[in-house]
Amino acid sequence: MTKESTNTSQFQLLPEGHYTFKVKGRPEKKRTAKASYRIWKLSYVLGQSISTFSTIMFPWLSKELLLALGGTINPENSEVVDWDDEQVTGKTFECDIVHVERDKDGEKIKSESLRNIKAVVVAETSGQAQTDAPPPIEAPAGEGPAVAWDE
Fold this sequence. Notes:
The chain has one helix at 63-68, and strands at residues 11-12, 17-23, 28-31, 36-46, 49-57, 72-74, 77-82, 92-104, 107-119, 124-125, 128-129, 136-137, 147-148. By secondary structure, the chain is mostly beta strands. The chain has one domain: CATH 2.40.50. Strands 2, 3, 4, 5, 8, 9 and 12 form a 7-stranded mixed beta sheet that branches. The chain has a two-stranded antiparallel sheet with strand order 1-13.
């Protein structure tokens, strides 16, 4: 048995602001006794470096994201989005990151929420789509990372 130490108390939130993200692979399906969800791994440029960000999206919160990534409304049920999880890798979208606070077991928990999600149309030059990293963004001035409990 190997002794380990694990910080279970906090993680850093992305600063609130407008971001452009690129999907870094097929979203991973997860299921608990209460719900199913997907873990989305995304990349973004901050200053001179490419960073990664992971977020959990429950089906009832993912409509805007799925449509921005090429999904379509099911003609028989407007609450269903038809999409292919093998076709989202490399697609780019923009959104606002806002911090939301909720109560979990008597404690106030902050987490990120993706709002105003929109597809980013990649310009084509000479018949080939550009595949560079998302354009750079700057974190809001004077904002340091916030701290929250991991879910």
